[in-house]
User: What shape does this take?
Amino acid sequence: MNSTNIIEILAYTIPSIITGGVAYFLFQAHFKDQQKTRRWLIQRDNQKIALPLRLQAYERMALFMERINPSQLVVRINPISDNKNDYENYIIAHIEQEFEHNIAQQIYISDQCWAVILTAKNAIIQMIRAAAKNKKVNNADELRTFVISELLEKNAPNNTALAFIKNEIAELW
Assistant: This one.
């Protein structure tokens, strides 16, 4: 083979290699773009399904916060006996039961919101325990009165959690 043949082969080969390389990169870019578009469409369709579920979860957690409001709890839940410790345990059992009923909602709400809800629930339980340990409280009726009067002076923890839930829902729009 002489140099003219080699130059002639290179003259045909180099442009075809360049054209093949450009075509390869263009097809790769096109396929990546198509894949991103498909992912975006799937995500958009999933959001149509997920948004109502998320809103329902926030709604249920707002209802949970309302139901464990200490002033509403002591009005709604009548003492089973005159013993303040029995009544304290009965109220806490109701709070825990409500919580367990709504525990699955955590998968639809943010971790930060879930932490605020847990903190509010635990703070309410601690508040009821502290009220039951107070020396002025001798029976279940006095515990009810003490919890209600204490809330008039302080902001209930569930109100803070409700405000947080409302802010998160506002961010969804």
Observations:
- The two ends are 73 Å apart (CA to CA).
